[in-house]
Amino acid sequence: MTLFDDWRARSPFYSETHEAWTMSVRRFVEREVAPHIDAWEAAGELPRDLHRRAAEAGIIGLGFPEAYGGVSEGIDPFHRLITTEELARPGAGGLIASLMTHGIGLPPILALGSEALKQRIAPPVLAGEKIIALAITEPSGGSDVANLRTRAEKRGNSYIVNGSKTFITSGLRADYYTVAVRTGGPGMGGISLLLLEKGMPGFTQTRLDKMGWHCSDTAALYFDDVEVPADNLIGPENAGFMGIMQNFNGERLGMAMGCCAFARVCLEDAVDWARSREVFGKPLIRNQSIRHKLADMMRQINATQVWVDQCAWAVGAGKANPADFALLKVQATRTLEACAREAAQTLGGASYLRGARVERIYREVRVNAIGGGSEEIMLDLAARQLGFA
Ligand SMILES: Cc1cc2nc3c(=O)[nH]c(=O)nc-3n(C[C@H](O)[C@H](O)[C@H](O)COP(=O)(O)OP(=O)(O)OC[C@H]3O[C@@H](n4cnc5c(N)ncnc54)[C@H](O)[C@@H]3O)c2cc1C
Predict the structure, then answer these.
(1) Using 50, 70 and 90 to split pLDDT, how confident is the model at 1?
(2) Run of H or E residues at 182
(3) Are residues 355 and 309 in the same domain?
(4) Average pLDDT for the chain
(5) Is the domain of 307 the same as that of 323?
(6) Which of 41, 143, 244, 379 to mutate to test the pocket of ligand 1 (most atoms within 8 A of CB)?
(7) What does the alpha-carbon distance between residue 381 and residue 138 come to, in Å, rounded to a whole number?
(8) Atom of ligand 1 at shortest range from CA of 210
C-alpha cells in the first residue's frame, strides 16, 4: 500500500467498484502514459491516438450518458475523482488538462444543445475520435466573463463571428470548440454558446508556450468573419452565461482533486527521498524538522481531501453549493502550493532537475491557482454568496 492508496482505504465514500476502477486506470497509465510522458512534454502535445486508447479503456466516456457512447450505469462522482487521481500519478498536469478537455467542452452541449447537435458531436468525442475544447477567456480578461467581447451577429441562417480567445487548452488539436460569444447587449444576459469547428474559413489558431502543462497544447484563437450555421447554437440565444457557470462547478471539483493528487505525489517523492538520502551520517528523515515537513504535508492533504470527498458527495446528492466549490478550489491550490514547496525543499538540488515529478509539479502550481477561476475571484464569489458584503 502506498501513500496514494492509503486514503481510499480509510474513507467511507470508496467501495469495491472504486477500487476496481482505480486499478483499471492505473494499468492504463502504467502501460500507455508513464513510458511516454517525458517525450510528450518535450513535444508540447499529446498524440491524438491517446484519446482513442483512453476511450477504449473507458476513461473518456466515464460519467457521460450511455445514449451518446458514455458509461453512466453505476458511476458516481467518486469514479471521476479516481480517474483524475490516477492520471495525476505521472506528475504532469498537462495530461489531465488536455486528455480530458471534453470534461469542460462537452457538458454544455449535453446540458443545453439540440438533440441533433448532441448526436453529431458527443459520440465521436466520447469514442476519442474527435477532440473538443472550451473557449471562454479573451485577451481583454478571463475573470470578468460577463464582459467578453467576441461577437456573433445573426445573418439569415448563420452567425458571423469576430473576435479572439486566449489560453485555450487543446486549442491547437481540437476539432470542435464550445465558444462563448456575445449575441446580445452588454453583461451576462447577452452571452451565448456556439459550436465552432476546425477548418471553418476565417478561424485560425496559434500556439502559446508556457511555464508548465507542457504536454497540453494551449492556443490563441482568432475569428475573422467566421460563418457558423445557426444550428450550431448551444441552447437558447443569450442564455449561455448560466451554462458557463454551471460548468465551472465540475471543473473546480476536478481541479481540487487534481491538486490533492499532485500534492500526494509530492509527499510520496519527498518521503522516498528523505528515507534514502544520507546527510550528516544518517537518513534525512531522522531529522525532526524534515519529519515535521512531511507530517504537515499529510495534514493539509487529508484536510483538503475530506472536503473534496464531501463536495463530491454533495454533487451526487444534488446538494452542491457553488460557494463550497469556490472555497475548495482555493484550499486545494494552497495545499498544492505548500506541498510543492516543501517537497522541493526536501529533495534539495534534485528537485531542480528536469525529469523530477516535483520539479514539474512546482512549475504547475500557478496554473491551478489561476485557471478555472483565480483565487481572488473564488474568494470573492464565496464571500458574496455567504453575504459578506
Ligand atoms: C494554461 C492555461 C490553460 C487555460 N485553459 C483555458 C481554457 O481551456 N479555456 C478558457 O476559456 N480559459 C482557459 N484558461 C484561462 C483562465 O481561466 C484564465 O487565465 C483565468 O480565468 C484568469 O483570467 P486572466 O488570465 O485573463 O486574468 P485577469 O482576469 O486579467 O486577472 C489577473 C489577476 O487579477 C486578479 N483579479 C481580477 N479581477 C479581480 C478583482 N475584481 N479583484 C481582485 N483581483 C482580481 C485575478 O485573480 C488575477 O490574479 C487557461 C489559462 C491557463 C494559464
Answers:
(1) low
(2) strand 176-182
(3) yes
(4) 96
(5) yes
(6) 143
(7) 20
(8) 1
**What's the number of domains the chain is made of?**
3
Residues 155 and 105 in one domain: no
CA torsion through residues 77, 179, 113, 71, sign: negative
Statement to judge: residues 255 and 363 lie in one domain = yes
Contact 305, 7 (CB under 8 A): yes
Active centre residues (catalytic): 251
**Residue 193 in contact with ligand 1 by CB distance below 6 A:** no
Is pLDDT at 38 greater than 70 in this prediction? yes
Average pLDDT value for residue range 84-104 = 97
**Range 40-63 burial, b when 16+ CB lie within 10 A, else e:** bbeebbbeeebbebbbebbbbbbb
Instruction: For residue 287, give the 3-state DSSP assignment.
Output: coil
Cell digits of residue 386: 455567504
- Which pLDDT score is estimated for 91? 96
Render pLDDT for 177-194 as a digit per residue (tens, 0 to 9).
Answer: 999 999 999 999 999 999
For residue 75, pLDDT over 70 is answered with: yes
Task: Point out the domain boundary residue: 126, 160, 183.
Answer: 126
Do both 266 and 352 map to the same domain?
Answer: yes
Strand partners, 178: 134, 195
- Looking up residue 281, the CATH number of its domain turns out to be 1.20.140.10
User: Which of 183, 206, 238 lies at the terminal end of a domain, its last residue?
Assistant: 238
- How far apart CA 70 and CA 102 sit, in angstroms, is 12
Hey, what amino acid is at 42? A
Question: Which structural domain range is residue 216 located in?
Answer: 132-238
Residue nearest to atom 50 of ligand 1 (CA): 167
**Structure confidence by residue, pLDDT tens digits, 195-246:** 999 999 999 999 999 999 999 999 999 999 999 999 999 999 999 999 999 8
Do 323 and 376 fall into the same domain? yes
In CATH, what number is assigned to the domain containing residue 116?
1.10.540.10
- Over residues 133-161, mean pLDDT: 96
| pLDDT for res 205 | 98
For the record, the C-alpha cell of 281 comes out as 551520517
Place 6 in a pLDDT band, splitting at 50, 70 and 90.
confident
Nearest ligand 1 atom to alpha carbon 136:
11
